[in-house]
Amino acid sequence: MHRDMSEGTMTRQVGLLLFVSFVSLSLVSGQVSYSIPEEMAKGSLVGNIAQDLGLDVKRLKSGKARIYTGDSTEYIELNKERGVLVIKERIDREALCGQTTPCALDFQIILENPMQFYSITVEITDINDNSPVFKNREMKFDISEVAKIGSKFILEKAVDVDVGINGLRGYSLSSSDTFILNPYRIGSSRNVEMVLKKHLDREKQEQLSLVLTATDGGEPQLSGTILITITVLDANDNAPVCSQTEYKSNVKENSGKGTVLTTVSASDADEGPHGHIQYSISNVPEGALDLFQVDTDNGVVTLTGKLDYEKFRHYEIDVQASDEGGNSDVCKVVIEVLDTNDNPPAINIMSASSSISEDVKPGTVLTMMNIQDPDSNENGKVHCALDENTQFTITSTSNNFFTLVTDSELDRERFSEYNITVTCSDEGVPSLSSSVTLTLQISDVNDNAPVFERSSYEAYIVENNTPGLSVFTVKARDADWNQNARVSYILEDSSVNGVPVSSYVSVSADSGVIHAVRSFDYEQIKDFHFRVKAQDGGSPPLSSNVTVKILIQDQNDNPPQVLYPVQTGGSLVAELVPRSADVGYLVTKVVAVDVDSGQNAWLSYKLQKATDRALFEVGSQNGEIRTIRQVTDKDAVKQRLTVIVEDNGQPSRSATVVVNVAVADSFPEVLSEFTDFTHDKEYNDNLTFYLVLALAVVSFLFITCVVVIISVKIYRWRQSRVLFHSNLPVIPYYPPRYSDTLGTGTLQHVYNYEVCRTTDSRKSDCKFARAGSQNVLIMDPSSTGTMQRIQSEKSILDEPDSPLEVS
Fold first, then answer.
1. Is there a contact between 320 and 328 (Cβ–Cβ < 8 Å)?
2. Residues of the chain with pLDDT > 70: what percent?
3. CA distance readout (Å), 667 to 31, 577, 704, 771
4. Which of 221-225, 388-392, 600-604, 758-762 has the lowest mean pLDDT?
5. Mapping DSSP to helix (H, G, I), strand (E, B) and coil, where does residue 397 land?
6. Is 287 within 8 Å of 301 (Cβ atoms)?
7. What is the pLDDT of residue 683?
8. What distance in Å separates the CA atoms of residue 250 and residue 332, rounded to the nearest whole number?
9. DSSP 8-state secondary structure symbol assigned to residue 783
10. Is residue 647 within 8 Å of 594, Cβ to Cβ?
11. How many CA atoms lie within 13 A of 700 on its CB side?
12. What is the DSSP-derived secondary structure letter of residue 593?
C-alpha cells in the first residue's frame, strides 16, 4: 500500500482479508492466517486473535500469552487486554521477502498453564511503493552508420522491487523515427531492446538522444527513466551473435572461489578489430554483483564469492558480447545453487518447566521446542531423541515442533534431579546434529512412611533404677525430604497390668529416646511390651509402629526369709534329739526362700555358732541339720545353734536363725534344763486371754447356730402340716474347721496347730506338729505342768477338725 493511500481504503482491505482468514480458521485447527498490506502504521489492527481462536481474553492473561518468533524480528505484537494482534514495527515487504511470493510472517502464540501454542501466518501483500529504477543514469551506444535496419541494441533493464501488478509492466521510448522498442522475455526475465528501423546517416546527425521510460502496473502508476545517447560510427555493420540463447549451470553452495560455472561464446562476421568480441556482465540480481565474473576475452564465467543456498537458490545473469564497433548480443546464464548439508539443526526452547512434582501423571508436557534447519529436502528433515532417560520421551506435535513429556511415573527418592539431553539430527550425509541439556528438579510429595531400623526392639533395665533414666533409643528413617521426612515418635496407648504404659515409660518426640518414668521392681514386674509410632510431618502424615519389649533385670535387693523354724516371742521351740541318735541323724531342716531370682536366689547355709560344733553340721545346700557323731551322755541337754542363710548376690545378703536342740530321752529331763529360760509373763497372760476370748466367741456362735437350726426345723414342720405335708429342703450347718496348711517356697510339709489342755493350769500352750518322725517340744517356762506330743487317737484333740479348747 502506498503511504498516501487513504485510511478508508486500508480498512476495507483488512476487513476483506479477515473474512478470508476466518474461512481458513474453520479449515485448519490450531492455525490462523491473516493477510495485510505492507507499510501499515504502528499500532494498526491485524486481527482479533482471541475471537478467531475461540479464546477468552482472560485465558490470554492467565496463560501469559506471548508471541514466539524464534530469532526473527517481531513485527507484530499481541495486545492481551483487547485480544488483538497489532503492528509493532513497520513492515517493508521488499526488505523482508525480496521477490519471493507469497511473502508471509510465521510465528506462534504460546500459552501456559496448561501449555498450548497456535501457529499464526500473516501474509504481507505488496503495495505500489517503489517505482522502476535503472541502474545507470545514462546509456551510450556507438552505432555504425552502416548498421542494418533491424539491428538490435540491448537496453538496460529497469528494476522494480514490487511484485505482481505493482511490478515492472513495460517500456516506452521518446518520440523517434529511427528506433523502436522490442520488449521480450528470456525465462522469467522481462528484457527490452532497441531496434533500428531506419538507416543512420552520420553526416546528417552524428548523435541522437532518446529517453527510455519504464512503467509499473500499480495505481497510481510509477515510472523511471534513463537517457540513451547514440553516437553514429562509420563502417561496422555486423554485430556479435551468441552461440546459445541461454546457458545453464548447477553449482553446489559450498563450491570454492574460482569454480568455473560455464563458458559463454559469441561470433562476429566482421574481420579485424570490428570482429574482436569482448564479454562483460551487463545485468545481475541485486546482491550478486560480487559473486560472479566473466573473462573479457574467452567468456569463462567463474565464481568469485560464497554461495548460500538458504539465501539465494537461483541466479540469472546477462553476459554481453560486444565488438569494438559497439555491436553486441546478450547471452543469458542461469545458475542453479544446489543445497549441501552445511547447517546443523537449531534448537529453540519455546517453554520449559524447571521443576515438577514427583506425582505427575505420565504424558505431562515439560518442554516445548522449535527445531529449525534451513537446509532443504533430506538435509532439512530433523528427528530428535533423548539420552538414556527412560522416564521421558520426545514427540513431534507438528512440523519442526517437539514436546518433551513424562513417559512413566517419577520417584524423587530414586532420582531428585534429571539432566535430560535432547539431540536433534538431520538426515543429510554426513548427518549434522545439535543437542541441549535440560535440568529438571523433582519436588517431593509425602509418599513414604517412616521405617524403623528394626522390626522389633528389646531392651534391658536393672531394677531400682532412677526415674527418668534413658533406657535406649528407637530410630526410624523416612525416605522423603524436608518436612515430609521429619519424624516424630509417639507412645501408643496401652496398659500393663491394668496401668497405662505412659506411667512406666515415655518417648522423646524428636529423638526417640525412651525414658523410664518410674523405678522398676523385678519382684513385681519382670517384663512388659508397648508400641511406639513413628509419624512424619507430611500432609496427610504417614506412620508406622514397632513393638518394644522391656526386660527388668534383677538386683540382689531382698535378703533371705526364714520360713522354718518359726521364731516366736512368747514360747521357746526346741528340737528333741534322743541320746540314742546315730551319726547323720536329721535333727531339723532350716527352710528359707529369697524372692530374688537367678543367682541372687541361690541360698547357702552355714553354722555360725553352736554349743558343740563337733556334734552338729548344716547342709550347705539344703539346710538340713544332722549329727556328725554319736550322741553321748556327756553331751549337754541344751544345745543352741545359730545358722546363717546367705544368698549368692553381689553383694550378698543374709539372715540368721537360732535353733534350740534338746538332747534328752524324756520330758522331765528337758524341763529341768529349760526352766532357766525367762519369758515375758505379761505376754503369756495376754495370749491366754485372747485364746479364752476366741473360744467363748466360737462357742456362742455355735450355740446360736444350733438354736437357729432347731427353730427352722420346727417352723418347717409346722408349715408342712399346714401345706398338705409339703416337704421343704433342710440345709444342715456345720462349723468350720480350724487348720492351717502352708506350702510356701521349698517348705512342702503340712503343719497343724493343736491346743493342749492341762488339769492344773488355766494356761494354754501351743504345740506345733511337723511331718515325719521328728519331735518338737514347745515349752512355757511359767507352766509347771508337762506337755507331751499326744500320738494316741483318744487324746482330747482327737480330730483335726475339732474346735480349739481353752481351759
1. yes
2. 81
3. 133, 11, 41, 20
4. 758-762
5. strand
6. no
7. 53
8. 14
9. -
10. yes
11. 6
12. E
Distance of CA 524 to the CA centre of its chain: 49
Calculate the alpha carbon distances from 137 to 214, 288, 397, 706 in Å.
Answer: 13, 21, 55, 163
Q: How far apart are CA 347 and CA 784, in angstroms?
A: 128
- Does residue 800 have a pLDDT over 60? no
Identify the DSSP state of 598: G
Distance CA 635, CA 656 (A): 25
Give the pLDDT confidence of 741-773 residue by residue, as tens digits: 333 333 333 333 333 333 333 333 333 333 333
* Residue 356 Cα to chain centre, angstroms: 10
Separation of alpha carbons 73 and 306, rounded Å: 25
What are the distances in angstroms from CA 20 to CA 27, 38, 43, 160? 11, 18, 22, 29
Q: Tell me the residue ranges of DSSP E strands in 23-132.
A: 31-37, 45-47, 66-68, 76-79, 84-87, 103-111, 116-125
Least Cα distance to 602 among 592, 613, 612 occurs for 592
Q: How far apart are CA 541 and CA 476, in angstroms?
A: 15
**What is the distance between the alpha carbons of residues 485 and 488, in angstroms, rounded to a whole number?**
10
List Cβ neighbours of 168 (8 Å cut-off, separation of 6 or more). 132, 158, 159, 160, 190, 214, 215, 216
Listed in sequence order, the residues at least 6 apart from 448 whose beta carbon sits closer than 8 Å to its beta carbon are: 413, 478, 479, 480, 484, 536, 542
Could you tell me if 709 and 595 are in contact, meaning their C-beta atoms sit under 8 angstroms apart? no
User: Rounded to an integer, what distance in angstroms lies between the CA atom of residue 95 and that of residue 644?
Assistant: 124
Report the distance separating Cα 238 and Cα 226, nearest Å: 26
- How much is the average pLDDT of 324-331? 85
Instruction: List the beta bridge partners of residue 489.
Output: 534
CA dihedral in degrees (590, 593, 598, 603; nearest 10)? -20
- Yes or no: say if 443 and 356 are a contact pair by the CB < 8 Å rule: yes
User: By the 8 A CB rule, do 567 and 574 touch?
Assistant: no
Cell for 799?
Answer: 480330730
Q: Spell out a b/e string for 165-188, using b for 16 or more CB atoms within 10 Å of the CB, else e.
A: ebbbbbbebeebebbebeeeeeee
Q: Exposed, middle or buried: residue 65 (CB in 10 Å: 0-12, 13-18, 19+)?
A: buried
Beta strands across the sheet bearing 168-173: 138-144, 223-233, 207-216, 168-173
Q: CB–CB of 583/628 below 8 Å?
A: yes
β pairing state of 31-37 and 765-769: unpaired
Q: What is the DSSP letter of 601?
A: G
Distance CA 278, CA 326 (A): 10
d(CA 687, CA 516): 49
Separation between Cα atoms, residue 281 and residue 301, nearest integer Å: 9
Whether the ω angle into residue 732 lies within 30 degrees of 0, i.e. cis, is no
